[in-house]
Amino acid sequence: MTDPNVSQKAPRILCAGGAVQDIVMRVDEFPKPGGKVSATKYVVTSGGQSGNAAVAIARLGGRVKYAGALGDMEDEVATSITANFAREGIDYASAVRVKGASSSVSIVMLDHTGEKMIATRRDSGLSEVAPDNADALVADVDAVLIDNRYENFAKPVCAAALKRGIPRVIDLDRVTRPDDPLLAGCTHIVASAEALRGTAGEADIGAALKVLGKHLQGFLAATDGPDGVYWLDHGKVRHMPAFKVDVVDSLGAGDTFHGAFVFRLVECGDEVDAMRFGSATAAIKCTRFGGLMGAPSRAEVDAFLKERAAPALEAVG
Ligand SMILES: Nc1ncnc2c1ncn2[C@@H]1O[C@H](COP(=O)(O)OP(=O)(O)OP(=O)(O)O)[C@@H](O)[C@H]1O
Ligand SMILES: [Mg+2]
Fold it and tell me: Looking at residue 233, which CATH number applies to its domain?
C-alpha cells in the first residue's frame, strides 16, 4: 500500500500482535447496576496493543504494517478493525483471517474524570496462530514491535528480526518469568508497571527493574501512567516524569507510548529521546476522547515538545 502523504524515508515498522474493536462511550457518571445513563460521545474504532500502536505510528507519519490473527472473513468485528486500519493508511495485508474465529471486542465507558470501565469479549481461537513466513514479514521493516499476549505470533517475528539485526521492541503487558526467552530476544523491553512488578515479584518499580535487568541484555523500562517512565541505565534506576495534561481519556496511552517510542528510536537511535517523544505523544492522546482516535500527528507532537520544557530526569537509585 503506498500512501502519497507518507514519506518514503519515514520509519517502516511492523506491529505484530493483537487488535481489538473498541466501542467507546463517554458518560458523566457510570451507571449503577440496573441503572441507565446517557452517553455524550461515542466512537467505534480499532484497539488492542498492536492495533493501537499501529494507529499511533501511522498518525506520526510512519509506514506501518500490522500482522496478527483476526477473526474470519464473516466476522464483523475483524472487518471493522481492518476498515479502520485502511482509514489510517496501515498495511494489514499480512493479517491472518482465521477460519471459524472471531476477533476481540471491548466496550469502554469513560466518565468525566477520565476513569474507565471496560468489558472485553476475548478472541476465540486466535492465540494459537503463527505467521506463515516471518522472514518475509520483517524483510522490509526497520524495527518490530511485539507483545507477549500472542507469543506464537511474536516468537517467530522476533527470531526473524534478530537474523536481520533490527530493533525488537516488546510491550511487556502480561506477567511472565524474568528468564522468559522472548524477553531475552528483544533489544528493548518496555513494560507496564503492573506487568513488571508481577514478573519480577517486587512491588517497588526500581527494585523490580533491577531484578529483571539481571536476566536481560536489552534496554529495560517501565511506564507508570501519570507517574511517567522508569528505566535502567548501567544498573542505575532513572525516572522521567510524565507531561502534565488535562486528561480526558487514557485508553491506549501505553500502546501510544510504545508506538511512538519505536518510531522515534528508528529515527534517532536514542532511548531517552524516544521515551520523551513517546511520553509527549501519549500525553496529547490522553487529552482527547476516543482511544486512538485522539492520537496526534507528528506536527502536533513536535509543537508540544517545543512548547514544553523537557521533563527533568531523575536518578532514583
Ligand atoms: N494521565 C496521564 N497523563 C500524562 N501522561 C500519561 C498519562 N497516562 C499515561 N501517560 C503516558 O503514557 C505512558 C504509558 O501509560 P501507562 O503506564 O498507563 O501504560 P499501560 O499501563 O501500558 O496502560 P495501557 O496499555 O492500558 O494504556 C506513561 O508512561 C505516560 O508517559
Ligand atoms: Mg500497556
Answer: 3.40.1190.20
